[in-house]
Amino acid sequence: MSKTVDHRTHLVLENYIGGKFVPVSRHIDSYDPSTGEVYCKVPDSGTDEVEAAVQAAKEAFPDWSARSPAERGQVMNKLADLMEAHLEEFAQAESRDQGKTVVFARTVDVPRAVYNFRFFASSVLHHTTDCSTMDHLGCINYTVRSPVGVAGLISPWNLPLYLLTWKIAPAVATGNTVVAKPSEMTSVTAWMMCKLLEEAGFPPGVVNMVFGTGPRAGDALVGHPDVPLVSFTGSTATAQRITERSAPFCKKLSLELGGKNPAIIFSDADLDQAVTTTVRSSFSNQGEICLCTSRIYVERSIYPEFLKRFVAATREWKTGSPSDPDNDNGALVSREHLEKVRSFVTLARSEGATVLCGEGKDPLVLPERNANGYFLRPTVITGVAESSRVMQDEIFGPVVCVNPFDGEDEAVDKGNGVRYGLAATVWTRDVGRVHRVARRLEAGLVWTNCWLVRDLNLPFGGVKSSGVGREGGRDSYHFFTEVKTITVKH
């Protein structure tokens, strides 16, 4: 950690509070994952900075919440237009900051961030409230929904702008004001977005951005008595801490946490499609997506054939410089994360599992400037015991385990055999089996014969240790508002 800042050699970020950029005295080094070099200084904010941001959000709340949804939507759509106009700049920055390929940032991250604002600007206009009559008592009952107040939003490093806007958009659409804390490892695109807020028409204090670590800035935000609502995406361990800090204040919580997502491939599956899509679902964005497949279960009769095809397709998945459009994967987000992911491969080997391709098996040739970057080839492992940490813990990298199964019941048992329950994929041509297995799997989302097909109107979230609550469409509208029942006797 560096307390001195060299303004000549590094990008230096500032907090955005009350419509102004505010410098700080303490900073954290942020690295370019593809080179291993420091390229950015991120504010190391604490209690004072969070306090200022919360106060700015509180002051902005009465005016912003009094605006009509259509008026708020106009501002959000203008921001979406401005972000879209700067799409390439955002994509280049996201790639350099996070390690993902420029192509992925250009085609997935930034367009989705833009769409998040457009979607919620529109969807908030179409929600209705309830009304009931009690004629025998001469009463009519109706409900109204009001914004909660200052929303504390904490987003992760894997899809930085994409997941940050997934929180900010519904929060401000419903009339709340916001104090957001992106990950300290990937803060640049959030800072860039702040530069566009005034031009878009956001009044000062509606959106505030405080950069820093979880233990300092995050803890101050979730423990602040004037922040009644917290939306968090990240690890289960951090969510437990947030729950503890929030409990004395009875805050509204939405927690989108880890996944250890199974793909279940039955013998009647379209094997070509299953292999192609499962490679993508296992390794997209370096496997750093909470919805990525990390456990693959294949019906025994097709297990050898699937494995042969899957390993061959995995070896075709190219890893290297994020700026090279021919590469499918870039670098992992940090050296610490790279070592964590590698440690799972080492553990699997020590337990007698077989590494079929990837880490320690296939060489990785990198350009000279990327020699110190945090790269790992997509890795396929077989023979891992269901009880192993490799099978039970979230690795969050390009590492996947493949095991056979016999019959539907065993497939479901294996699929449900972890503490997580975010997503699952099922591959079969049998429509009856699709519905049976989908109902039995303990997961918030089940895709059949596809992966990552998302309608933002539908609920998003997990069960068990994968989270609490749902967001998306009506669910976000309900989470970011409080319902009030009004009874009138006539």
From TrEMBL:
One of its GO terms (cellular component) is cytoplasm. The keyword GTP-binding does not apply. It holds the Pfam family Aldedh. GO terms for molecular function: aminomuconate-semialdehyde dehydrogenase activity; retinal dehydrogenase (NAD+) activity. It is found in: Cytoplasm. The active site is at 256. It catalyses: 2-aminomuconate 6-semialdehyde + NAD(+) + H2O = (2Z,4E)-2-aminomuconate + NADH + 2 H(+). InterPro entries: Ald_DH/histidinol_DH, Ald_DH_C, Ald_DH_CS_CYS, Ald_DH_CS_GLU, Ald_DH_N, Aldehyde_DH_dom. GO terms for biological process: liver development; retinoic acid metabolic process. Residues 26-486 form the Aldehyde dehydrogenase domain. Pathway: Amino-acid degradation; L-kynurenine degradation. PROSITE patterns: ALDEHYDE_DEHYDR_CYS, ALDEHYDE_DEHYDR_GLU. The keyword Cytoplasm applies. Its EC number is 1.2.1.32. Keywords: Cytoplasm, NAD, Oxidoreductase. Gene3D superfamilies: Aldehyde Dehydrogenase, Chain A, domain 1, Aldehyde Dehydrogenase, Chain A, domain 2. Catalyzes the NAD-dependent oxidation of 2-aminomuconic semialdehyde of the kynurenine metabolic pathway in L-tryptophan degradation. Belongs to the aldehyde dehydrogenase family. This is 2-aminomuconic semialdehyde dehydrogenase. It comes from Salmo trutta.
